[in-house]
Filamentous hemagglutinin
Amino acid sequence: MIKAKKAKLLLNIIPFAAVAAISATTAIIVYSSVNKNESNKAYIASRAINSNLIADAINTNLNNSSNKDNNLEKLEKVKETVVEAEPVEKTPEAEPAPAPEPEPTPEPEPAPVPEPTPTPTPEPEPAPQPAPAPKPEPIPEPEPEPKKPIIIADKPVEEKPAVEIPPVEKVEEPPLVLEPKEEPKPQPQPEPAPAPEPQPEPKPAPEPVPEPKPVPKATEGAAVKIESLPDLDFAKLKSPKNGGSISEAEKAVIKNSLNTLKALSVNIPAQWTAEQREQLHNAYEKLYKYEFGGEDVPPYNKEWVDNYFTLIQNDGKTMEKKLKALGLVGPRIVPNQNPALDFKNAIELFSKELDERLANGWVPHVGFETYSFGVSWAYADPSKNVVRNHAIESNKKRYFGYDKSPHRREDNDIKNNNYPGWVKTDVTSNYSDLGVSKSDGIEVLQYNPESEYARTTEAGKSPRFVAVLDAANPSGYSKFLNFIKELGRTPFRKLDGIVIKNMGKYDRTQKFDHILSQIPDTVKKLTLIFEARDTSSLRALKDKHIEELEIYTSNGALDKEWAINPYALRGVKFVSFDYAQQGYGTIVFNKLKFDAEDNLSTINEAFRMVFDTRSGERIFQGAFGDGSWPTKLDFSNVPAIRSLKGMFLNNRVFKELTLYNSTNVFEVDLATLTSQQWSALLIKGPERPKLYFSSPTLVNTLYFKGDSVPDNFGRDLYGLIESGNYHFQTIYVDNQAVADTLNSSQAFRTFNKHAVVKPANFNANGGNSEISFD
């Protein structure tokens, strides 16, 4: 019965043993390296559940195993006799390892363990006594040999890597070695891939900079020839070809007078003698009489003409120094002017053209009243003199008008508020109830018509009243505004005109905007007498409707620093003009200067007045009168203006242009270069154009922004480079193609300029005084 049970048990175990043999990995036998002096002990590591060791087996030492299985139990040493196993109702799934008695080879080289015929052992559920493995029947049991420590390692646990143990050669006895079956061979579990070493985060590769496309070379256009520039003449008063008839006797007097001047000009002394001065006066007085045709000739001012003779003395002094010594201001001073040489050249030209001019009814206009040295001719017949006729018509347009006389108001008339054909009466005391008096610097004047013309015109139908304020009187300055407001509340006390004198005389920062903006609508005539150069208060008039405006000074009417914003005069119907070299006279504005609130629209509206619709008015004709215009532009108060682009210039050219610039770099947009109108700075004559900057720092760098140069750029580039020649010591561009184009231009070659590609650290907003080229 026991044998039958054994047989049955063996039959049940064999399948499990076969499965275990197939799934188990080949056992690796190694010598124990732990402690050779200890007794032979076996260390077994197995993945099988409830794995048991037959015959002298003990629990494995987990500290030296490749995989830890905590389900192995310590087994008691069993007897060699076969004990009948308890019947097992249910065999758990397990992978029993066969327990052959391998015969290890003797040292030093271990022989392969003989592979016995596998005999499955029963696995009880909780078996206190494990079933002994039966002895293999086919092969006799080998001689026992001393046992060595053996480590049997199963395949590594998937979760924990096994300790790598060098393989041990198998025992060469074929019958005793259990060879693993090839089929089905378990798939080896892939060793876990080693964790990748941390790699530095790759930096993004810089985007490749596209190579610039080749820029086609721009055409420069026609070369600039300064000497061939056209003579611009926008005169409204066209002179007839014939100036009148001249008798032979008159021609002889004119020729003799001119010959006297010519003889004296050959060798001009450092100081005229009294006799020479008398000869000069006699010749000039005769020419002066014929210049006016004998009709309504103004008195010959010998003292005034004598100053002229002092100016032309050959004493080595400059014109500017001579004028200052005489207390005069010259209208047309050029650098290094030589008045003695200019006088000599003028007389020679007069003599050369004299016969032809006399035949056509023209007489010499020596121009001493303006201290000019140009050559001009006057009408022998005054009625044909378009300038004279224009002056007569202008006098009729005055608020206190007069006719027939071409003469303007004189210095004393302006100073004392007198008008030809009108009688003045001081009525200040009639306004004492309004709290004003002469001690406050406030006067009220009444004007009544006296001349036939004044009495017969609309203006002469009733008296006219004018209030006068002396701005140098602090008391009157503070009371005047209240005074004109009170007048507005009394209809029977009308105010027709206002005069403000000594504006800025003692305080150059004195402001008049508030007073001018409060002028009542009843005021039709306004007279302003400036003593400081600041006329910006005129902007308060831009929305006023005034019939006549007079702008005077006693402080050098021809000074080049005077400037005006023409937009301020858009509501003024007529601006009178009373020219004077010294004393009181109308200010000559050769510069147009705009205010901070202006923009391109208001600027163009002003330019249309000056250069077109009102160009015939003397106030808009600059220093040279009819046919001319103000030749200086100032946009220093308008930072947005960077050029003349978009402006209505009506073919005018200019000698000076002032712009605002906040840094040391002036930037020009290449794309719009040809529309920026720098060609308006191309002028003819000895005076050269100038570009000025109003800036907190020195402007010394020019930056052309853009990748290409437009066609026909030559004229605008020439105007920019010539006018800014002394500013632009450094010129930067964006690429070499632009640099090559500019460097080969006429402007760069003429003024010795050289453009280079801007450095990497270039800042177009300025601060480039120390730019590195490394």
About this structure: The CA atoms of residues 368 and 557 lie 17 Å apart. The chain has 15 helices and 20 strands. Residues 248-384 form one domain. The first helix runs from residue 2 to 23.
